[in-house]
């Protein structure tokens, strides 16, 4: 089982439908690569960071280091 398949399996266990889980896994890997380049950090470290966000988000938690946002104003 390759890395993307493992991530898809994790996403499925966290509640994503199988088709969506596969897309999510590909996006996670792509974003980990992007962050590694942007921040000059190891790809594995960036993937770990994204996975922590994913797991906390699926549990309805907001990580302390996640920036707060404001809802859009109604015009």
The assigned structural class equals: mainly alpha
Number of domains: 1
Q: Strand tally, please?
A: 0
Major β-sheet annotation? none
- The coarse silhouette is globular
SSE ordering: HHH
How would you sum up this structure, described in words?
- By secondary structure, the chain is mostly helical.
- It has one domain.
- Helices cover 65% and strands 0% of the residues.
- The protein starts with a helix and ends in a 17-residue tail after the last helix.
- The model has no long low-confidence stretch (mean pLDDT 90).
Secondary structure: elements and pairs:
Blueprint: H1 3-13, H2 18-39, H3 43-58
Task: Write a concise keyword list for the protein shown above.
mainly alpha; 75 residues; globular; 3 helices; 65% helix; single chain
Summed up, what is this model?
The protein is mostly helical and 75 residues long. It has three helices and no strands.
């Amino acid at each position: 089982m390759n890395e993307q398949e493992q991530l898809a399996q994790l996403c499925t266990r966290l509640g994503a439908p199988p088709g969506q889980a596969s897309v999510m896994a590909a996006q996670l890997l792509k974003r980990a690569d992007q962050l590694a380049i942007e921040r000059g950090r190891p790809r594995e470290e960036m993937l770990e960071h994204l996975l922590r966000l994913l797991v906390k988000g699926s549990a309805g938690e907001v990580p302390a280091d996640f920036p707060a946002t404001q809802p859009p104003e109604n015009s």
